[in-house]
Design goal:
This is LysR family transcriptional regulator. InterPro entries: LysR-type_TF_proteobact-type, LysR_HTH_N, LysR_subst-bd, WH-like_DNA-bd_sf, WH_DNA-bd_sf. Pfam families: HTH_1 (PF00126), LysR_substrate (PF03466). GO terms for molecular function: DNA binding; DNA-binding transcription factor activity. The chain is of the alpha/beta class. The protein has 3 domains: 3-85, Winged helix-like DNA-binding domain superfamily/Winged helix DNA-binding domain (Arc Repressor Mutant, subunit A, Orthogonal Bundle); 92-142 and 277-301, 3-Layer(aba) Sandwich (D-Maltodextrin-Binding Protein, domain 2); 162-270 and 304-310, D-Maltodextrin-Binding Protein, domain 2 (3-Layer(aba) Sandwich), CATH 3.40.190. Helix content is 43%, strand content 24%. The strands form 3 sheets. Strands 3, 4, 5, 6, 7, 10, 11, 12 and 13 form a 9-stranded mixed β-sheet that branches. Strands 1-2 form a two-stranded antiparallel ribbon. Strands 8-9 form a two-stranded antiparallel sheet. It is elongated. It starts with a helix and ends with a helix.
């Protein structure tokens, strides 16, 4: 007896509500369906279905067995698809959802390089608007950031765990000087993002090389805004010193448009995730892009961290 086929026939009988309906769905004879189920019951040593002239219902043993059968058949299909993916061409449309910040500073810079490697892949990107987050099931990937203790009910692959850093433009630092201690921030123009979990006018700094020492510095923000991208634009234009996520600001640090200050002090930690559809096999193009995005982001952050060691 082919046990996997028998399990598949048994599941179909349950889903279709009877032997005759299962036979039609499977394009088999009713006798063949009956034989598979009988052989399966003999194999497990228990009656799985209660048969009457009017209906078929699960026994108590059948209820427990069908739950495991569904998992087994799903796993078998996933294994087949994973093996098959290695031979498939990396092509097709990659549908991605992301916030404006991630779409602009993380996703967009990766597209050109990825398409040079895989020109048959095209992108369909939906940028999420305020108050409207897309369902994960609508897309191949949904990019999101969350704190380290994030435990949402999602299938999510971590891209990178990053830190928040203080930075400013070279022009601003040339004019106002470089802060050497956290207390020096009180004498500088500080830019702050409004956040429900943070107090206005307070910067919380952590020193990773001093057993996680955390201090608070009170400042008077010259710019208070609820959109991180606005702070970034103001930083690039020399408006002051502000906090930015390392994985987003790394390209600007690497090109010298911004300079990290007060390293190794940090301003928080969070992880960038790629949320994936539940129970949906990932196409080869999705695997390839996640690998590429992860590698590029980590390389960019590593370079920026190395530069910060040499910064004033």
């Amino acid at each position: 007896m082919d046990k996997l086929q028998a399990m598949h026939v048994f599941q179909t009988v349950v889903d279709e509500g009877g032997f005759a309906a299962a036979a039609r769905a499977l394009d088999m004879s009713p006798a063949g369906v009956t034989r598979y189920v009988s052989d399966l019951e003999a194999s497990v040593g228990a009656r799985l279905l209660q048969r009457t002239t009017r209906k078929v219902s699960l026994t108590e043993a059948g209820e427990a067995y069908i739950a495991r059968v569904r998992h087994i058949l799903n796993d078998v299909e996933d294994a087949r698809a994973v093996a098959q993916a290695h031979t498939l061409e990396i092509a097709g449309v990659l549908r991605i959802a992301a916030s404006p910040l991630l779409a602009t500073h993380l996703l967009a810079p990766a597209i050109a390089g990825f398409r040079r490697l895989h020109p048959q892949v095209t992108f369909d990107v939906s940028v999420e608007t305020a108050g409207h987050a897309h369902s994960v099931n609508e897309f191949d990937i949904r990019l999101l950031s969350a704190p380290p203790d994030f435990n949402g009910n999602l299938i999510a692959r971590p891209i990178i765990t990053a830190i928040g850093v203080l930075c400013a433009s070279p022009e601003y630092l040339a004019e106002r000087g470089v802060p050497l201690t956290p207390d020096d921030l009180k004498q500088h123009d500080c830019l702050q993002t409004r956040h429900p979990d943070r107090r206005v006018g307070v910067l919380e700094l952590t020193h990773p090389e001093a057993d996680g020492l955390t201090i608070e510095v009170r400042v008077q923000p010259v710019l208070l805004v609820n959109f991180v991208d606005t702070v970034l634009r103001a930083l690039l234009d020399g408006a002051g010193i502000g906090t930015q996520p390392m994985e987003l600001v790394a390209p600007h640090l690497n090109k010298g448009r911004l300079v990290r200050v007060l390293a190794p002090w940090t301003t928080g930690q969070f992880t960038l995730y790629a949320a994936l559809p539940s129970r949906k096999f990932l196409p080869a193009r999705t695997h390839a892009f996640l690998d590429y995005l992860t590698e590029c982001t980590r390389e960019s952050v590593h370079t920026a961290m190395q530069r910060a060691v040499e910064s004033p």
